[in-house]
Design goal:
alpha/beta; binds calcium ion; globular; single chain; Inosine-uridine Nucleoside N-ribohydrolase, Chain A; 12 helices; two-stranded antiparallel ribbon; 10 strands; binds alpha-D-ribofuranose
């Protein structure tokens, strides 16, 4: 058995972020979660850091250090998504106030320090919100870029195009300059775009299975997906909630669940019309240098079986 992957999750909880964090915590043989860094995204930073602590307490893992990162995009005004996630960011169930402390250190400094102190190539960054913290860390400490094992991010879209504008997916749209920095940095990147996450849809059957676990985690995850799915059902007519962020963790546990192509992906940062679009050269029609493993399909049964198995452990 290989040693667990050391990871830092950079997140804007968000019900799907919560499921991703719980999947990681339910998989200690494969994942060693070094820390959680909150970023402004679905809801403002004061809520995403609080929600990160709530999730750790729910999993009874108050040993996981939680940091606050950046409270706004690099150079734009923050756009949030309360219309999807509710005003707390974790709407659905009533949740207790967290009691575990927030770390004093800024989340960007935690990312830099962790990468400098660990052997090169042994720490994976898992951003599942806007890429602000990652980009600021790369700008402030370019020496860490070569030390990152891999960036596995949820963001972008090609065939699925946008969910916050006709052209852009939310995480990229909120901070396109940050995404541009990360995608041009030369770091090894694996992308879980809407093309994949829209195929990881919860079903009534799966939600019933999760409820049948009859655990605190099971009931909360069922209640979060109940709340979270209404946006996508209304908008896309889809049956079920797309579990965007857990796709990153599932990939780290079992990469064979996903298929994609190593292609060039560039970020629109100029045009107001297509701001934040991930321009993915899926068909290889340019001679731009490939820079990202862009996923296109998922074994959704395998994904949900894995999720149920790991959530059952919490
Ligand atoms: O577009 C989906 C992404 O935006 C997910 O990470 C969700 O949590 C929101 O942050
Ligand atoms: Ca997210």
């Amino acid at each position: 058995m290989a040693a667990p992957r050391k990871i830092i999750i950079d997140t804007d909880p968000g019900q799907d972020d919560a499921v991703a964090i719980l999947l990681a915590l339910g998989s200690p043989d494969e994942i060693d979660l070094l820390g959680i860094v909150a970023v402004a995204g679905n809801v403002p930073l004061a809520l995403t850091e609080k929600n990160s602590r709530i999730i750790c307490e729910l999993a009874e893992r108050t040993d996981i250090p939680v940091y606050a990162g950046c409270d706004a995009p690099i150079r734009r005004k923050l756009v949030t998504a309360e219309h999807v996630h509710g005003k707390t960011g974790l709407d659905g169930p009533k949740l207790p106030e967290p009691t575990m402390p927030l770390q004093d250190q800024h989340g960007v400094d935690f990312i830099i320090e962790t990468l400098r102190n660990a052997p090169a190539g042994t720490v994976t960054l898992v951003p599942i919100g806007p890429l602000t913290n990652i980009a600021v860390a790369f700008n402030r400490a370019p020496d860490i870029i070569g030390r990152v094992q891999e960036v596995v991010l949820m963001g972008g879209a090609y065939f699925e195009v946008g969910n916050i504008t006709p052209a852009a997916e939310f995480n990229i749209y909120v901070d396109p300059e940050a995404a541009d920095i990360v995608f041009k940095s030369g770091v090894k990147i694996t992308v879980m775009p809407l093309d994949v996450t829209h195929k990881a849809l919860t079903s009534a059957r799966w939600i019933a299975d999760i409820k049948a676990l009859d655990t605190n985690v099971g009931h909360l995850v069922a209640s979060w997906t109940d709340f979270f799915e209404r946006f996508d059902i209304e908008k896309y007519g889809s049956q079920g909630a797309p579990l965007h962020d857990p796709c990153t963790i599932a990939y780290l546990i079992n990469p064979d669940l996903f298929q994609g192509r190593f292609i060039n992906v560039e970020i629109e940062t100029q045009s107001e019309l297509t701001l934040g679009m991930t321009v993915a050269d899926w068909w290889g029609v340019t001679n731009r240098v490939p820079n990202a493993m862009f996923m296109g399909s998922v074994d959704d049964k395998g994904f949900f079986d894995l999720l149920t198995d790991r959530l059952a452990r919490l």
